[in-house]
Design goal:
Elements lengths: L15 H10 L8 E2 L10 H14 E2 L21
Parallel strand pairs: 1-2
């Protein structure tokens, strides 16, 4: 599924180049990622929690299949978004 950017320029930069620059600026550990059964990662705007999320992802060896579960921010459904 490819979803269009809903809040580009608000919670994250508006351009791909600016997003890549911001992510590259995050101070993450360059250690060897380890296998993980699950992760809990914040998902507020990059300015608020991007560096924490980057650190979590940098520590985890991501397999070829990933299931992401998150809240439905649109208010259109009561179930979590998958």
């Amino acid at each position: 599924m490819i979803r269009k950017a809903a809040v580009a320029g608000s919670f994250y930069p508006a351009t791909q180049e600016a997003i890549e620059a911001q992510i590259a600026s995050f101070d993450v550990d360059d250690g060897k990622p380890e296998a993980a059964l699950g992760l809990i990662v914040p998902h507020a705007g990059y300015t608020y929690s991007g560096e924490v999320a980057a650190k979590v992802y940098a520590c985890a060896k991501v397999e070829s299949s990933v299931v992401m579960i998150g809240p439905n921010h649109s208010g259109g459904a009561s179930a979590p978004s998958l």
